[in-house]
Queue: 2 jobs
Job 1
Amino acid sequence: MTSVHRRADRRSPLVLEVLELGHGAGSMREVSRTVPAPADLGLEVIGVPEGSDIDLDLRLEAVVEGVLVSGTAAVQLHGACARCLRDIEGAETFRLQELFFYPGHEVEEDERQIVEDTIDLDGVLRDAVVLELPFTPLCREDCLGLCPECGFNLNDDPTHEHEAVIDARWATLADLDVKPNN
């Protein structure tokens, strides 16, 4: 199955030239650079803020089938705790590894190809970061969340309580002074 690969925008900081690696196995190049984060790099509750720094440390190796990219991407995460809605911020490092096939190779739909002697790391970065982010990020493992009645953050006072709520249909009976029969 041949997949359609679009032309890479050479102005993008996530597009790398691989011409000097040649088409033979054995050559290698290391790349370290800081690039701005693309838009929508994350989930709705947690992600990498657009334009924030991503530190890439990569190794590009020419192999028989194409160019193997491996390394890390260090990012700053920002989001909200799924239980108490407090802001979450922190640094995280994600591992990247992807084989980009030379043109003319039969590739599957989800495989990547070298286009005009360039590789586009946008998809690789998205796969590495987004697939590793938690669906329910927590500010801490034992987060108590919010009070279901008033929205108070239970982490601030774990003993937070409300008076027992009486069902309005029975409120009149609570006012009666009923004595048990003996």
Note: The chain has a mean pLDDT of 87.
Job 2
Amino acid sequence: MSAETPGGWQRDAFRDMGGATAPPEPAPQQQPQQPPQPPQPRPSPPRARPPHRPEQPAPVSAPVVRHDVGSVPARRGDPFTRRAGRALRQLLMSSAARDTAEATAAARAIQQPITTGRQIAVTSIRGGAGKTTVAALLALAFAHYRTDSVLAVEADPALGTLPHRLGAEQVRWSAADLARIVDPSMNITEVTGYLLPFTGSSGGPGGGWLLPGSQGAIGAELDIDTYRIVMTSLRRYFGTTVVDCETLPAEVARTALTTTQARVLVAPATPEGAAATRSVLDWMAGLHRSMLPTTVVALTRSSPGMGLNDRKAAAYLEAGGATVVPLPYDRSLAAGGEIRGALLAEATRAAAARLAAETMNRAMSRGRGGGAPA
């Protein structure tokens, strides 16, 4: 066998790459004899460096709403006569003990320990159903009752109102901004530097963090890649994440329904809303057999005259395994603006706590062998 020609492997490689010109074969040279050199110490390998993140220009803060166009007057959810009547009933009847027992049971369900982050998607079948209000109520309830970190993500960026509902006055960093910056080497303090804080409901000491979807620009979009980067990267920092999704059938909303541990479907408490919600539940049942047992339907009321029978609606919508939680009409919520826990009606606070408890129970059921695929 003849000796291999120097440079022959290069010519073969360039020829295999499509006829590229190989480098010329070097002429043989006589190597001068060198005296033997003493062995040199081997240099230590360079230390691993974190991946370089290109510097991103910091966005300029933008106001959530313009205060010169007027402010929302603060109103209590319960009128004075209802508050007085409730106080009298608590003195004369045993309903106070029953309410206390229900509140204690809800608090225990919300506060149950978790080992990995639970992510909850909130969506609706149409605009105006109260989706963002429900997402804000859930985030406030979790932030009030839980001691670990709670995150609210606005995945409905086109003129979304979640920052306003949670009391933010200015928005700077958005989900798209954070997706370009977040890195596995970041700690919780670095991550929260790009988020907005909000306070837990009922004036409690707890609090959470908010990631806005945009600065309120028309046409702002949150694509699937950005959503997945944000959700997978932030899960290890936060025990509970509430996602305010776009309305169905938007792509991000459909992705959130199938990748989160639990989901809340918001529907207006009307016959039309119940019928449309049943159609969505039938569609979800066809996606995965465990979708409906991890789904909660929130029936919302935007006016006091919405008289849908809650018992009959629950029997109609819970057939496949979903749970229905009615939310009462609340004057403080109907007025818009920041949600202030101290102004919420007593029935609203109880319903929000029950909604959070039911949702957490279903989010935890996935870790025990149930739930939709992640």
Note: The beta strands are 62-63, 118-124, 150-155, 170-171, 196-199, 207-211, 240-245, 262-268, 295-300, 323-326.
